[in-house]
Structure formats: structure tokens, C-alpha cells
Amino acid sequence: MDPIAKSLKKRSLSAKIETRGRLLTQICTLLIVLLVLAIFGFIATKGVAVFIQDHGSLWDFFTKTTWSPDQTDLHQRPLIGALPMIVGSFAVTFLAVLLATPFALAAAIFMSEISPQRGNKILQPVIELLVGIPSVVYGFVGLAVIVPAVQKVAGGSGFGILAGTLVLFVMILPTITSMAVDALKAVPRHYREASLALGATRWQTIYKVVLRAAAPGLMTAIIFGMSRAFGEALAVQMVIGNAILMPSNLASPATTLTSVLTMNMGNTVMGTTANNALWTLALLLLLMSLIFNIVIKYLGKRSALR
Amino acid sequence: MRCFKVLFCGIILMFLTGCMPTKQQTVTAVGSSALQPLVETASEQLMHQDSQAYINVQGGGSGTGLSQVQQQAVQIGNSDVFAEQKKGINSQQLQDHRVCVVAVVPIVNRQVNIRNLTLTQLQAIFMGKITNWQSLGGPNLAITVVNRAQGSGTRTIFEQQVMQGRPTKKASEQDSSGMVRQIVQNTPGAISYVAWPYLTKQTPALKVNGVSLSVDNVAHNRWPIWSYEHMYTAKHPNAATKSLLSFILSEQFQQQEVLKMRYVPIQKMHYQQDYTGKITRIKVNKQNGSHR
């Protein structure tokens, strides 16, 4: 056969590389998907064991306040009242987001609308630095500075939801800010130009046009901050006091789902009720982060439609 | 493509060398963080003497230690509590080695000028019946109780020896002795307890029933809050594990390192304790003088 026809009929080297490359990426993708599924399956099976094997009651889990999975009540059901930690987790998360959002929005508006040059030069590196600080450092600073300060102002031990909120506030501020900046920057330039051409002032443009147009993106930023705050374990554990009690005020010791998990994992034995109950907390955390992700996806779709 | 092949060969090589038989016997000891420094010291000294031995010491808590040794994932499970006290552990499968005694001591914040409490007063404080230091003759300060995490070794000892089955008040919990110490140091009116090796000058120790903490008082059970440090192994431990255990139990190590790190050598004890917390006097065997 003629060598040209032969080389045309054979698969070329670059075609082979192409196939191999595709195979490799497909395998990697499959692996990641399998990993996620495996984690979900594992935590779900472990997480429901306390209800199925140990006859815990789902109602107790969400409504009772006594957490002592080693002991059982009159009906031989383990005492797995997780309400104090659920309340604690949501309280620190919402308070931190409530506190951080105005600051983050203000910083984001400054960086994208008011003074982009100075914003990019000074604020951007500062925020990137804040994102990079490990959470144990935040916790340590919280323990050394925030807890004594709360103690002076509010009395008591200083450990509690207020201290946890303040630490989380600093931790999620950069997350919300940088995502809010992206959302504001994504607003098309001609929106602003049209608004200014109509005679709107700068503030009117920001308030009536830019913020409205960027609203879904800003919501995404806030929910990202929330999900980070909800899942944070170490820094919160160091300052919240870890008392499995319904918080009576902001300065009384409380606890969160994550800190109960990290505190007790090492002290329980695999397969016992105490251990299974902790897996249930892990499952709850996983479901919450799933919900946060779904909300973010939903908001993303809405903003894409506009 | 070539770099892929090199990488592939590298991985294969790593697997092959990993499977090579070695003469070294590895011992992994996991568990109680209270016992960890002692075992680390022992393993360093032993590895220095005997280059064939390789000992890996990790923390993780008594529960982790017991469950890992039960699953035979590690050779030694360090624990502050008896295996019988831990749910989910079958003590029949394990061999208990009591290596030393640890005393637990109540500590208070400096601003509390009380330095002696009776066992009953301690119970009342941790049950939440007494909430101000004034009612014990101290300053007008609210009592802040700091506990260790549920199921931690130190808390189990404290609850067994002090609370004796009475329910403890729900209070702030911390997952390490270091954190407890720091919080008691910084919080006016705070009270907690730590294992003796973790006691520092920043947090004054209390006398219990007028008895101060000393090796002699623990040995004669005058100091009431103590228990054993256990190293659990499988029924038939390997040679390297045995040599580590006998090194820790050796007279020299017990007299020097154990005392230096403020544990109480097991030979000094005149009393013994079982897993229910019952304490009995040891009848001294005149023939060898020591009892194990």
C-alpha cells in the first residue's frame, strides 16, 4: 500500500493521546463522584444507626435537651437530645452573618464602585491574607483577646455564643467580601452608565441599580459565609465553652454540633450508642451543607436567567 | 508520555520496597493523652538502646486506644480507665498492664482563697448545689465549673472517686487538660480538675479533706482521687511490645522517669483498686517486697 494512504488509515499519535487524555480525565471524574457517594453512603448508614439499632427517637433528637447517649430513659431509649447544639450552631451562624454582612457589603462597594484602585491595592491583599489564616489562629486570638473582653463586659466566664459569634465574624468577613466584590463586578458597565446618564447620583446608582442587579450574587456570598460559619469547628470550640446547655444568654457557655463532634470522637468506641449518636450529628452537618449548596445553586440559576 | 512512564515505575518501585520484609518490629501505642508523654519517653530511651525496635506513640483519647487495640489495629492501647468501664469493649480479649498510678487534683482560680475542701463540698460544687464561694467561706464570687469531655479518662476517674455516682451539673466542657488549666487560670471563680502531671503553679491545687497531694499520700490512699494508667495489649503480645512493657515497669524507669513526670510508681502503692472503684489494702508479700 502507498505510505500516505497507510498513514491516513492508521490512527495518528495525536489522536491516541487525545483518547488517552479523555480516558484519564473521565476516570478522575468518576473517582471523585464515587468518593462523594461513598462518603455520603458511609455517613448516612452510620448516622441512622442510633435510630435503628439503638431505638433512639428522632423526635427526642430534635426536641430534647439532655445529651448523654450512654444512658437510657424510662423507655430504654438513649438520651440523645441534640437541641442545645442545634440551637448553638444556628445562633452563632446567623449572628455572625448578621454582623458580617453590612461590613462585607460596605467593603465590597468600596472596592468595586467607590475606589477600585485603592481597593485593589490595599483591601484585596488584606482580604486574601485573612482567608489564608488557619482557623486555629483565629481561635487562639479569640481565646486570648475576645473571651477576656466578653468576660469584662458581660461577666461570667466569657465563653459563649457572643465570643463564638465575634470569632466567626472575623472568619467569614473575607469570604463574604471577596464573593460580594465578584458579584458587583459582574454587573455590566452599561447599567451604571445608563443610570448615571439618567441623572442618578452615584449613591442612587449603587443603591437602586448595582445592588439590585447583583442581589442573587450577593445572596450567594452570604450563604457561602453561612456555610463556612456552620461548619467551622476548631475556632468555635475554643471560645464557646462547650456546655451542652440551652444558651440562656449570649455570654453563657453553649456548644455547637461541630464542637461536640470533635470533643467526643476520641472518647467513644466504634459501634457503641455514644459513637453512633456522634455520627448522627455528622449526618446532620452534611445535610445542612447540602442544603446550603442547593440554595447556592438555585440562586446561581436565577442570576444566570437575568 | 515519558514522564507518565517514569511516574508509573516510581509508584511500582514504592510498592515493591514497601513489601520488603524488614527485621524491625513495629509497636504502635495509641490512646490516653495523659499517659502519652510517659510512653514517649520510654520508647525514646528504648529505641536508643535497641536499634531494632521501632515504637510509634500517638494520642487520641482512652476510647480510641481501647477500640484500636480491640480491633488489633495497634499493639498497645493506652487508657486511663479500666476496659470494663468502657462500653463496647470486651475486656476478656485484652490483657491489662497497669504501668503506674495517676492522681487527679482539683484546681481553682487564684482569686479563690480557699485551699481545702472536703469530698462532700467538692461533690456539692460539681452537682451544682453550691454556686458561690461565699457559702464555703471564700470571696463573693460565682463558682464556674469546668469539666473535661464526657468519657475522657480524667473525668471518669474524678466522677468515680469524687462524685461516686451522683449526677454532675451540666457545665462547660473542654477536651484537653491544657485548655482546662488555661481557662481556670483566666476565669475568676473557676474550679476544675487535672491529672497531676498537668498541674502547674498558675492554678493552685486544693487539699482534699485536709490532705495535700504527695506520692506518699497517694500510696497510702490518704489522697482519695487516683486510678491506674493502663496499657492494654492483645492476649499474646509480640516480643517488641513485651520489651516496651517490661522497660516501663523496670525498677529504674519507675524510680526515675515515672516519679519525675509526677505519676506514682506502681510498686509504691499500698492500696489497690478494681474497676468498680473499690479500694482495698494490699497485703505486703515479704518475699519480694513488691507486688504486681
Question: Layout of helices and strands, plus pairs?
Answer:
The complex is a heterodimer of chains A (306) and B (292).
Chain A: H1 3-9, H2 13-52, H3 58-63, E1 67-72, E2 78-80, H4 83-114, H5 116-132, H6 135-154, H7 161-185, H8 189-197, H9 202-213, H10 215-231, H11 234-240, H12 257-264, H13 273-305
Antiparallel strand pairs in A: 1-2
Chain B: H1 2-19, E1 25-31, H2 36-49, E2 53-60, H3 62-70, E3 76-79, E4 94-95, E5 98-108, E6 116-117, H4 119-127, E7 144-148, H5 153-163, E8 172-174, H6 177-186, E9 190-195, E10 207-208, H7 215-219, E11 226-234, H8 239-249, H9 251-260, E12 264-265, E13 271-273, E14 279-281
Parallel strand pairs in B: 1-2, 1-3, 6-10, 7-8, 7-9
Antiparallel strand pairs in B: 3-11, 4-11, 5-9, 5-11, 5-12, 13-14
Strand order of the largest sheet of chain A: 1-2
Beta-strand portion of chain A reads: under 5%
- Overall pLDDT metric of chain A: 90
Q: Into which percentage range does the β-strand content of chain B fall?
A: 15-25%
Residue ranges of chain B: pLDDT <50 for 5 or more in a row? 286-292
Mean pLDDT of chain B: 86
Pick out the low-confidence regions of chain A.
none
Share of helical residues of chain A? over 70%
CATH class of the largest domain in chain A: Mainly Alpha
- Specify the number of helices of chain B: 9
Biggest beta sheet summary of chain A: 2 strands, antiparallel
Distance between the termini of chain B: 65 Å
DSSP summary: helix tally of chain A: 13
As a whole number of angstroms, the C-alpha radius of gyration of chain B is 22 Å
Broad shape of chain A: flat
Q: Which structural traits does this protein have?
A:
heterodimer; A: 306 residues; mainly alpha; MetI-like fold; 2 domains; two-stranded antiparallel ribbon; 13 helices; 2 strands; 76% helix; flat; B: 292 residues; alpha/beta; ten-stranded mixed β-sheet; two-stranded parallel sheet; 9 helices; 14 strands; 23% strand; disordered C terminus
